[in-house]
Amino acid sequence: MLKMTHLQKIYRTHLIETHALRDFSIHVREGEFVAVTGPSGSGKTTFLNIAGLLEEFTAGEYLLDGIDVHGLGDDGRSRLRNEKIGFIFQSFNLIPDLNLFDNVDVPLRYRRFPAGERKKRIEESLARVGLASRMKHYPAELSGGQQQRVAIARALAGSPRLLLADEPTGNLDSLMARGVMELLEEINRQGTTIVMVTHDPELAARAHRNVHVIDGQVTDLGAEPVLGRAALDGATATAAIA
Amino acid sequence: MFGYYLQLGLRSLRRNPVLTALMVIGIALGIAASMTTLTVMHLMGSDPIPWKSDKLHYVQLDNWSADQPYSDDGRPPDQVTYRDATALMDAARADRQAAMFKLSLPIQPENAEVKPFQALGRVTYADFFPMFEPPFAYGGPWDRAQDAEHARVVVLGQALNEKLFGGQDSTGRSVRMGGIDYTVVGVLGKWNLRSRYYDLTNGAFVDPDEFFIPFTTGIDLKARSSGNNSCFRSPGDGWDSYLASDCVWIQMWVELETPERLAEYHAFLDRYVDEQKKLGRFPRPLNNRLLDVNEWMQDQQVVSRDIEVQTGLAFAFLIVCLVNTIGLLLAKFTRKSSEVGLRRALGASRGEVFRQFLVESGVVGLAGGLLGLLLTGFGLLAVRALYPDYRTVAGLDWTMVATTILLSVVAALLAGFYPTWRACRVQPAAQLKM
């Protein structure tokens, strides 16, 4: 699903060069639930930005669902991001003046789905996260946990193959965090690959595999992954480590 | 996607009502200032008779003194002499022709309760009416035979007919003007003349003529023109000397259907002047002109230099307003950086973000245009109040309404271009705290 080989990311100013990722290699198979851990400044966020095609890398190779993303233009990267990737952010990132329906609608608009198809997907996604009855509500009217569920519904509405989550429970209390985590596990069981950055060892332990990053390098690729049910049903996925 | 962008634009305007109001008012003020002056300029200079303005030609002959030109830029006199006007009328070489001058006459109403008053009218030929096509409410013009007969007939303007006959059909009735009774043959309806283009020598923006009488009849009155009169030497004493003099006081128009007819008439004028030279007149080099309606309006600077300068200043003010709008849009779009980052993460390309924000700028322009239209209306009312002469040109027509809206939207799009470009350069990763 996601394969990075000898990836480098260097931030340059006229004074200094910062190596955010160096010789970074990772292979996430379809159906995996991978937790990425590491101290602050270790390169987790840079990895997630590059994985989500939000940033370009300096050197190396990145294949997303078999597509070499190097050299893709802005339109190509945007389309790929829209079709293949769902994002879940720590601070939810809902648009405050759009109601839940319209928030979930955002990625579908860029996908050019017809109105009927969009409505069906939005209703299904919100139903999946248990918020079908609150479609006309605005983000400010919801709790943090509910807002994160909306963000998950938005990420799922376009049926992405890969879900990138950045500290998805970082702004939630433990009860809400547990609910969100259970939802992610459910989504993974239904076949969606998830890569989650987290500081929380308890959450990381619930992933199939933990990847530890220090100083822009993968130091621990984790144990043999246990794949989600859909992947297991496919009987093709095996752990693969670059 | 345009509908979606429009929806987002409207939503965004509602989100920051104060900022939105500042932008809309800024654009509206600039648009109103520009459009008020532009409307006046546009209507002043617009073609008053577009379907035949290229067929109506104003005749100018240079009969001026050998010692000095009529004007430093070589233009021939703005009017012609009585001798030349009548000679050209008698020759009848054009498809239609009408000599004319302005005349003020005392009117004695039938109704004794209405006091006598002065009215300004026009002395002209029967062809004036089919040439300039004033609308008739009742009756019609006199004919060429009545020109020849020196008939005492009159065509009343709408206002005078209203004053004398309460707006009723007065054809066949008598009007006493300058002590002579004239029979009303026609009454004009509302003539929407923005400028009195057929007599620019006496001012383009003046009250419409109140009556029209035959030229031949007017000459019989021995009443001098109430309009401009220019002589380079004394005309001598008496009416006949005046008619025979080199003083120019008559406007002469001809209607020529084709460019070939125009060329023929020009050649005819040259031959006429050559003949006159043999008689000792026209000492200056051949300098005859036949300007069509629009050329004549330009020549007479119907749109004055002052109006052009005012319009330029108003557009400069619009630019200042747009610079202000650029700043406000920059502030607005910068505040939306995180939304831009999010939309980019969710699949919007730079182009899509660009179009979304450009539509939002356009919505601001549209709102500014509508408010600007309202303010333009007030501006034109102010122009009418301050400058009564401009009342015929201080009004909005559909062209100017459309231009106002279009100008506003285009101006807002231009103002929004840089902030929009900045917005779509936002790095999503920097905004999302991934």
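qc> Chain A has one domain: 29-54+74-234.
qc> done
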